[in-house]
Sequence to fold (142 residues):
Amino acid sequence: MKSIYHRLLIEAPPEKVYEALTTQEGLAGWWTPDTSARPETGSILRFAFGPGYFKEMEVAELVPFTCIKWRCLKGYEDWIGTTLSFELQPHAKGTVLLFHHDGWKDYTPEFASCSYDWALFFRSLKFLCETGKGFPYPEFNK
Fold:
């Protein structure tokens, strides 16, 4: 299986980054405003990206201020069944985010596009946590 992997320093405490990755308000602030989310293991997160396209994730694991894991239930075909892990590590300047998007069957055009888009969205997450303003969909790539 193939994996997307990113590492990012966010100059904000782990508690703030964790909130941005687990709450409806936080996720809407950096990924997509059309978000439905509850920070509870087993809950289903729903993210819409324009008319007719959405992703659904099951919250597989939550360890406060340390780890978030999701399993993709709906989205692009290549995404379904993949797992997404957000590991937060305290750092002298804030928090290091280690992100894995695991379980891709192959290196496909969607895999390449997704890796690039994650980098753009993590820039949005960084700005949200550091300044209070992210660049969620559809603004993330401007």
User: Anything to note?
Assistant: The mean pLDDT is 96. Residues 2-133 form a domain with the Alpha-D-Glucose-1,6-Bisphosphate; Chain A, domain 4 fold (CATH 3.30.530.20). The longest helix spans residues 109-131.
